[in-house]
Amino acid sequence: MMELRAENICKSFDGQQVLDHVSFTAGPGITCIMGPSGRGKTTLIRMFLGLEVPDSGRVVGAEGLRWSAVFQEDRLLTSLTAAGNLRFVLGRNYDSRQAGALLEELGLGDVGDKRVRDFSGGMCRRLALARALLSPFDALALDEPLAGLDPENRRRALECIRRNAQGRPVLLVTHDEADQAFLQAAAVWI
Amino acid sequence: MKKAGAIRPWAVAVWLLVWQGGSMALEAAYPHGGLLLASPLAAAARLMELLPTAVFWQTVGRSAGHILAGFFLSCLLAVAAAALCARFRRMGELLSPLVAAAKAVPVVSFIILALVWLDTKHLSLFISALMVFPPIYLNVAEGIAQTDRGLLEMARVFRVPFSRQLRDIYLPSVLPYFRTAMSLALGLCWKSGAAAEVIGLPDGTIGERLYTAKVYFQTPDLFAWTAVIVAVAVVFEKVMLRAVDALVRRWGG
Question: In this structure, what is the dihedral angle of CA atoms A128, A133, A138, A142, given to the nearest 10 degrees?
Fold first, then answer.
C-alpha cells in the first residue's frame, strides 16, 4: 500500500524555523494539510516533490514516484493558450477530448484556445488544476488549488480532485475545514 | 506617441543644407576648398557613378561577406558560450576576464594585434566577431539567468523534456535580451569591421576604398563609400531585427 511519511522534519530559512519536528503519515487517498499561514505547509509539499531538502528528518515514500502538482503560484506559460499549457506537460499524451472534458467540468470549456495572459486569476488556478489532474501521476501535491475560486467553481474543483485521486496519495494544502469535510479526507494539522 | 530620438525627414534636410552650405563656403574661401568638404550633391553624384559598376558590388559583397561572417560566427559562439556558462558556473567565471577585456580594450589595439597574427583578408571577420561577442554573450547569459525558476521547477516536477523547456521557457525568456544585443552588435560589427579594413587594407574592400579616397583627397568618394556602409548596415539591421521580432512574437512571453 502506497504511503507517504514525514519523519521528524525540521527546516529553517534565514534563521527562522518554519518546520519544527513535523511527522505524519499520508495513506492512499486525500490527506488535507492544514494550519495557519506561515507554518511551512508549502515547504513540506516542496519536500515531497523533491524541491526542498529538510535540515533534519526525512520524507519517506516520495522518491521514485511520478508526481503531479498544483504549486502555490499558477506557474503557467502565459504566452501559450490553455491547450498549449496542457500540451507542454503532456506532450504526446495530450488527448484533446479528455482535456476538453476536464476543462468543461472546471468551467473552462470555451477557453482552450485563448492565451493564458488574458485569463483571470481564478481561471489560471483552474487551468493549473486541470494540468495537474491530466498529467499521469502516482501521487498528487496540491498547494491551495482552490485559492481565489468562487463557491461554485470550488465545489466543481473538489469534485474533480476527488474523482481523479482514484486511491492514489493526494496531499492537499487548504485553510478551509469545509474542503476536508467535503472530500471526507484525512487531516494533518501543522 | 512619437519615439524619442526618431529621425525626422525635415531634420535630415536641415543638416544636408548645412553640409551643402559649409561645402560651398569652403569652396568660395579657398581655391580647392571643395576638396576639404565635398558637398552632399557631389557625394550623391559619385555614388550614382559607382552604383552601376560591377566593381562596386564586388567590393560591397566582399566587405559584407567578411563582416557578416564574423557577426554570425560570433553570434553562434556567444549563444553557445552563454548556454554553457549557465550550466557550468566556473566556465562563466573563466570567460569573464576575456569578455571584460574585449569590452574595454580599444578596437584599434585588437586590429593592430590581429594584423600581426592574421592575413589581412580575415581581419574584418575576426574584428567584427570580437566586437559582437561581448554584447551577445552578456545579454543571452542575462536572459538565461532571468528565466523564471518557478516554471523550470514546474517542468522538472512534470518531467517535461529539455527540448520543450528550451522552446517554451528558455526561448521566450532569452529572445528579448537577444534582440537588444543584436541591435547593439549589428552597429558594432559594421563600425569595427570597416575600421579594420581601413587599417589592414585587404584588397577590394570598402575599407581600402575609403583609404584610397583619403590618400588622393577624393572626398566625394569618401562620403559615397561611408554612405554605402551606413546603408548596408541599416538594411541588414532592419532585416535581422524583423526576423528576431517575428521570433519574439511567436515565442515571446
Answer: 40
Tell me whether strands A186-189 and A29-34 are parallel, antiparallel or unpaired: parallel
pLDDT given at position B217: 87
Cα within 13 Å of Cα(A149), Cβ side: 25
Closest CA to B129 of B197, B44, B205, B188: B188
- For residue A62, the one-letter residue type is A
pLDDT digits (tens, 9 = 90+) for A78-112: 989 999 999 999 999 999 999 999 999 999 988 87
Of A139, A131, A138, which is closest to residue A160 (Cα–Cα)?
A131
How far apart are alpha carbons B79 and B138 in whole angstroms? 9
Measure A125 CA to nearest chain B CA, in Å.
14
Interface of A with B in 129-148 (CB under 8 A): 131, 135
Cβ contact (<8 Å) for A75 and B251?
no
- Domains of chain B, earliest start first: 53-251 (1.10.3720.10)
* Domain edges within chain A: 4-189
pLDDT value of residue A167: 87
What single DSSP character describes residue B6? P
**Inter-chain contacts counted by CB atoms under 8 A, chains A and B:** 44
Closest to A47 measured CA to CA, from A76, A67, A73: A67
How far apart (Å, rounded) are the C-alpha atoms in residues B173 and B159? 20
pLDDT in tens, B47-98: 999 999 999 999 999 999 999 999 999 999 999 999 999 999 999 999 999 9
Whether A51 and chain B come into contact, CB under 8 Å, resolves to yes
Q: Tens digits of per-residue pLDDT, A118-145? A: 999 999 999 999 999 999 999 999 999 9
Name the residue in chain A with its Cα closest to that of B153. Answer: A51
What percent of chain B is predicted at pLDDT more than 70?
Answer: 98
Class of A4-189 per CATH?
alpha beta
Interface test with A, best of B156, B157, B166 (most A CBs within 10 A): B157
The DSSP secondary-structure symbol of A115 reads B
Q: Which three cell numbers stand for residue A99?
A: 482535456
Query: Which residues share a beta bridge with B214?
Result: none
Q: Do A77 and B168 touch (CB under 8 A)?
A: yes
